[in-house]
Every structure is written in C-alpha cells, then in structure tokens.
Design brief:
single chain, 243 residues, mainly alpha, 58% helix
C-alpha cells in the first residue's frame, strides 16, 4: 500500500503546514499546539496526532488543516497505529466525496487496497464493513469486488455483515446492501460445503448461522442472482439451489 500512501502525500502537499491550528481555547492547550506542530509531517507519531484526530473539525482546525495532516493520519491508521474508523468518520464529516477529483481518487486508491488486503490476507481480516461505510463512499465498487470470494477472510467478513444488518432496525438498513446480500445466498451455501470439506468447522458453523439469518434480513428481496461477478440458480422458494 506504500505507493498509494505516497500518492496521497503528493496530492495533499498543496495544503501547507499551518502556522497555527486554531482551536477552542478551553479544549486545546499550548502543549497540544506544540505537540501537533513540533515535528515535520512525516515524523509525527500517533501520540502527537491523537488529540488532534479526535478534535479535528469540531473544536480544533478546519478542513484544510485536516487535509494537511491527512496523509500522515491515513498512513498511521492503515498501519494499525491509529483509529481508522474515527479517521473515516472525519473524512465523511469533511465531505471528502465532494473534494477535487485528484484528491478523491488518491483516497479511494488507498481504501480499495486496504479493502482488498482485508479480503485476501492470510491472517484473519481486520477489515470491517462498518469501518469502510463510515467513510461515506459509494459501497457499490467494494461490494462488487467482494462478491464470490472464497477466502476465509472474505467469508468471515460476510458473516459479520449479515450479523450487523440483522441486528440493525429495518428502517436503518442500507437498501443497497440488503439487495446485495440477497444475491449471496448461493455463494454462502457453496462456501459452507467447501469449508466443511476442508475441516474449517468454526467458519462452517458461522456460515450456517449466517445463512439462516440471511433469510430474515432479505425477506422481501427475491434476487437470487449475483453481485455482478457470477451467477447461481434459484429454487422455487426464491432461495439458491445448492446443487
């Protein structure tokens, strides 16, 4: 992911280091200011940026200040040294999907690589759909790249998404995500048999439970096709035929 991060540094270099980041005098101390501006951007560590990342846009700094610090914040967060979920929320608050095209493209490149790695890395993924959606980006491309993957990481993430949606009130659910989940019935069933045959008992059990939940989540959805990357047959009751 380093090349994508370097591109973010390049694109956002147009936002110079501020002389001072204005903030609420009751919330931000002089020590906070010294920590934030006490080292070059690439040398700022997570501890120096911690308070700023929580207060940015609310009581400390504006959108252009965030843009200056964003490359380092993103680098630390994607590396696991800072709060990625919180950073994505700040990006959404800053309205990044309306920023200039080059800025949006560089950020999406990082998000896409982070998402892909989370679906394919050997160790259990730390990728969270909830974290991704916190960014406010269009979910379509991420769902499209996910559909049909048989890696344990992709399947665990699918199980977790079904659980998240099932425990969300119907009115609060994203209809696009629910419609996409309706297309995963056959994929989930095939994956269940595959992981069962390879002795992945924990994942098989999780898939079985998620498949039952899926019918409740997608009760009003009759789609039994695909997320755009494959196909499955449908039985007479609208569920995928496990043949």
């Amino acid at each position: 992911m380093q090349s994508e991060i370097e591109d973010v540094y390049r694109v956002f270099a147009r936002y110079p280091r501020p002389v001072r980041v204005e903030g609420c005098q009751h919330c931000v101390t002089e020590d906070d200011h010294r920590d934030l501006l006490g080292a070059p951007l690439r040398e700022l560590d997570a501890e120096r940026l911690r308070r700023y990342s929580h207060k940015a846009l609310n009581t400390w700094g504006d959108v252009d200040d965030l843009r200056h610090f964003l490359p380092r914040l993103l680098e630390l967060s994607l590396r696991g040294d800072a709060d990625l979920h919180g950073l994505f929320a700040k990006l959404r608050q800053a309205g990044w999907t309306d920023w200039p095209e080059e800025e949006r493209a560089s950020l999406r490149a990082c998000l896409s690589v982070w998402w892909e790695l989370g679906l394919t890395e050997e160790e259990r993924a730390h990728t969270s759909w909830g974290t991704l959606t916190e960014s406010g980006d269009d979910p379509g491309p991420y769902l499209e790249s996910w559909w049909g993957r048989s890696t344990p990481q992709a399947l665990w993430t699918l199980v977790e998404l079904v659980g998240e949606v099932a425990h969300t009130t119907p009115r609060a659910r994203d209809e696009r995500v629910v419609a996409w989940l309706a297309t995963t019935r056959g994929w989930m069933e095939e994956a269940f048999f595959e992981v069962s045959e390879t002795g992945q008992a924990e994942l098989a059990e999780a898939l079985s439970e998620a498949r039952q939940l899926l019918d409740l989540v997608t009760l009003d959805e009759t789609v039994a096709g695909t997320g755009g990357t494959g196909s499955s047959e449908s039985g007479t009751d609208g569920s995928a035929d496990p043949r």
